[in-house]
Each structure stands twice: as C-alpha cells, then as structure tokens.
Amino acid sequence: MERLCGCGPYTCPVIDLHTHSRASDGTDDPAQVLEAAAAAGVRVVALTDHDTTAGWRQAAEAVGRTGVALVRGTEISTRARTADGGVSVHLLSYLHDPDDPALRAEWDRTRTSRMDRARRMVDLLAQDYPLTWDDVVEQTGDEATVGRPHLADALVVAGVVASRDEAFATMLHAGSRYYVGHYAPDVAGAVRAVVAAGGVPVMAHPGAGKRGRIVDDETIAALADAGLAGLEVDHRDHDAPTRDRLRALARDLGLLVTGSSDYHGTGKLNRIGEHTTAPEVLEEIEARGTLGVVRP
Ligand code: AMP
Ligand code: FE
Ligand code: FE
Ligand code: ZN
Question: Whose CA is nearest to atom 16 of ligand 1?
C-alpha cells in the first residue's frame, strides 16, 4: 500500500509495530518499552516478544502513564519447509486472542524447545569457554522466551566477548559449531492459526538476508493465499533495493506494508521509532484484529 498521508514520518503520529522487552530478548521491561517510545516521540507501539504474550499486561498498565497507545502482538518463530531443510521465518501477529488454545500450544512447544536448545548450546560453548547455565539464567527473567541473545549477554558478562553483535558474529550465528536449532511450526499453518485466533499476521523482515536464508516470492504469494495480511518492508535489515522489491511484491499481492524498529533495548543498535507504519495501515490492522489498540 502506498503511504496515503502527505506528511513525513515524524509529523504523522509515529507508529512502530515491532519491539521486544524482557519477556523475550529485549533488555527493557515492557513498561520501559513504552517509556522509551514516549521519550522518542512514538505515539503507538506494538510489543511483539518472541513466542509469548507475557509482557502485554505490564505494557498495557503503562499506557495511561506514558500516553503511548499499545498494539498487543507476538513475533512467532516459524519455519518455511524447503527441499533442503527449511528457512526460519519470523511472523508478527497483531491483536489476536492471547488465550487461543492452538496458538498457546504452539508457543509452549516452541518455548520448551528453545530452553532445551539453549542448554545444549551452553553445553557446547562450555567445552571452550567459561560459561555455565546459571550465567544464562541470570540474563533471563522467570517467564522470558529464551534466545541466543541471552547466551550472548552471558558471554559478555563472562568476559568472552564485548557485545551481543560480537557473540553472534563469532559463535552464535547459524553456521557456528555451537549452533543448535529449535522446534518451530510451519509458517503456513501459523498464518492460518493466527487468523483463526482473530489476529493479523505480518511477515517480519522478509528480506533480511544477513541473518540467514530468506523465503522466495512464490512462498510469500502462497502465504498471502493462506491469509498473510502484510509485509514488514521498512526495517533496518533491508537495503533500499530490497525495500523497493518488497513494496512492489506487497502491491502485487494486495498486502499491507509496515515499518518498524525491531527495538531490543540496549541489546541492539535499533532505535525505537526509527522506521514507522502509516496510520491507515494501522487502521486496517485494527479493523481486522479481534482486540483493539489500548489507547491512553
Ligand atoms: P533465536 O531466536 O534464539 O534464534 O535468536 C535470534 C534473535 O537474536 C533475533 O530475534 C534477534 O533478536 C537476535 N539477533 C540476531 N542477530 C543478532 C546480532 N547480530 N546482534 C544482536 N542480536 C541479534
Ligand atoms: Fe529478538
Ligand atoms: Fe525477528
Ligand atoms: Zn523482532
């Protein structure tokens, strides 16, 4: 969808539809994400922790105090099956029923597998570096979805690396000998499950080739047929040609276009509000979702 409003991104109500808190691999509490949004002039923020809705309540409680509207979301770890194994796909879901049994069952399964996988990665890393499981537990809250960024933080505290980025570049990337995969549901099934739960599914950073393999246009077209609502086009992991290509694909397939920061607190360079979504796109997402936006 073209941007219909004539205003630049910072005179429109600034809408950022992808952020993380300590409920997964961000470094802010959910309320602090809204505080960071307010400080940056962001008026609407979606909290989209990996495979959980655990941060929603605390974030919603901060809406009145911060004046920032909240879109309740989740970033679902999924996999697109290919002949040679599969491609990791992150699927954003907005405004779904958090108690939907099918979604909850998948997230429980994924989070359990993520925990097993993190333990196995620590076992491998501990063969070469001074790292224990307790070091990782210190980096995760009770309810957090455990991810490689927590291992990275533990490696930083242990003095093995200087930053999350260095940890990913040297020992946590998917090609590393310390890397272990985790369970993730098939992406087409996840799209259908999100729609069945009253949610609005948008593919996160579909062209982020630096992170690993990406899906092809045919796969995205098939997902559009399954109910995919949009593509996250404006994201720092997309260069200008990639954004142009994805915008054209979204237009061809009748998909919404979103933009967002993928803010992770101090865990990544991404600044909250650095990419934004047009107000009429948020309107459409809200019209399709079963929950409303929590407004001040
Ligand atoms: P996982 O979900 O456990 O496989 O870890 C993937 C997550 O790690 C992504 O969602 C990002 O939040 C984060 N990540 C990936 N690459 C980097 C990086 N270079 N620096 C910091 N965080 C990263
Ligand atoms: Fe993340
Ligand atoms: Fe992601
Ligand atoms: Zn994300």
Answer: 168
Which of 172, 197, 217 is at the close of a domain? 172
- For residue 24, how far is its CA from the centre of ligand 2 (angstroms)? 7
Q: How far is the CA of 269 from the centre of ligand 4 (A)?
A: 13
> Which ligand sits closest to the CA of 145?
1
Give domain status of residue 146, yes or no.
Answer: yes
184 close to 77: Cβ distance less than 8 angstroms: yes
pTM, full prediction: 0.95
Same domain, 125 and 98: no
Q: How far is ligand 1, taken at its centre, from the CA of residue 1, in Å? A: 29
Instruction: Give CA–CA dist 276/14, Å, rounded.
Output: 6
| CATH number of the domain encompassing residue 140 | 1.10.150.650
Nearest CA to ligand 1 atom 20: 165
76-108 per-position pLDDT tens digit: 999 999 877 799 999 999 999 999 999 999 999
